């Protein structure tokens, strides 16, 4: 009995350690964001395409907001209120919410600027200089013709040695053999032998032969001559 209780305790500890290990792995992969009352969030939109209204889900806005959290429900659900018109959403899952980050316009800084300013920057001097519209004015003209080397280049390739020539011939032969193996050989058409049919033997018709034999041996009665005078 003690052995069974000890085995049960060991198995319970192993299952608990395995559960804690997998829980730690899951928590390291995901960051669970929780919101509180009066937090501003974005709400995911679920817009479907509609051809009649001219709405395409791919070009529709993915988020709507900002929304203010007014109540926290159990199970990761929140009650929201839209800031713009005060619309109330009774229950929205946390999967459809993301923290609201306001968008600010980008400010352009110069190289020697140390403090931010709201005034626009002056146009650099190199941008105010006029640019010539005629491209040919910027191309220098050369009066003297360019010197061209008319001496043909000499062939500096070295002659092949005897071993190199042998290897090259061997490579050509192997390539020719591989090419012959790749080309399928013509296949002769199969020879079709004529079908010899056996002559049919006519079966003897016994009834017809018996009738002919009967007619040959039958003697017809002689008929009396007709009296034409009457």
CATH class of one domain: Mainly Beta
For this structure, the CATH topology of one domain is SH3 type barrels
Helix content estimate: 25-40%
| Relative strand content | 5-15%
Low-confidence segments, ≥5 residues, pLDDT <50? none
Number of beta-strand segments: 5
CATH architecture of one domain: Roll
Mean pLDDT: 76
Describe this structure in words.
There is one protein chain. This protein is α+β, with helices and mostly antiparallel strands. Among the domains are: 31 residues; 61 residues, SH3 type barrels, CATH 2.30.30. The protein is 28% helix and 13% strand. The chain contains four helices and five strands. A five-stranded antiparallel beta sheet has the order 4-3-2-1-5, with no helix packed on it. The longest helix has 28 residues. It is elongated, with a radius of gyration of 54 Å. The chain starts with a helix and ends in a 13-residue tail after the last helix. The mean pLDDT is 76.
Layout of secondary structure:
Elements: H1 2-29, E1 40-44, E2 63-72, E3 77-82, E4 88-93, E5 97-99, H2 125-128, H3 162-182, H4 206-217
Antiparallel strand pairs: 1-2, 1-5, 2-3, 3-4
How would you briefly describe this protein structure?
The chain has helices at residues 2-29, 125-128, 162-182, 206-217, and strands at residues 40-44, 63-72, 77-82, 88-93, 97-99. It is an alpha+beta fold and 230 residues long. Among the domains are: 1-31; 39-99, Roll (SH3 type barrels).
Based on the model shown, name its key terms.
230 residues; 13% strand; SH3 type barrels; elongated
């Amino acid at each position: 009995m003690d052995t069974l209780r000890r085995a049960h305790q060991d198995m319970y500890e192993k299952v608990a350690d395995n559960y804690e290990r997998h829980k730690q792995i899951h928590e390291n992969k995901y960051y669970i964001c929780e919101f509180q009352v009066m937090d501003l969030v974005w709400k995911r939109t679920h817009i479907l395409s509609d051809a009649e209204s001219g709405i395409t889900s791919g070009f529709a806005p993915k988020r709507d907001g900002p929304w203010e959290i007014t109540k926290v429900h159990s199970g990761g659900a929140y009650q929201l209120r839209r800031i713009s018109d005060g619309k109330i959403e009774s229950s929205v899952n946390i999967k459809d919410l993301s923290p609201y980050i306001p968008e600010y316009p980008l400010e352009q800084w110069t190289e020697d600027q140390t403090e931010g300013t709201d005034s626009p920057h002056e146009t650099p001097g190199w941008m105010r200089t006029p640019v010539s519209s005629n491209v040919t004015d910027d191309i220098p003209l050369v009066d003297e013709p360019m010197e061209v080397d008319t001496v043909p280049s000499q062939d500096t390739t070295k002659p092949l040695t005897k071993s190199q020539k042998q290897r090259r011939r061997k490579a050509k032969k192997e390539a020719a053999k591989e090419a012959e193996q790749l080309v399928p050989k013509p296949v002769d058409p199969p020879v079709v032998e004529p079908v010899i049919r056996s002559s049919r033997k006519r079966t003897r018709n016994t009834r017809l032969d018996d009738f002919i034999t009967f007619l040959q041996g039958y003697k017809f009665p002689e008929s009396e001559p007709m009296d034409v005078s009457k």
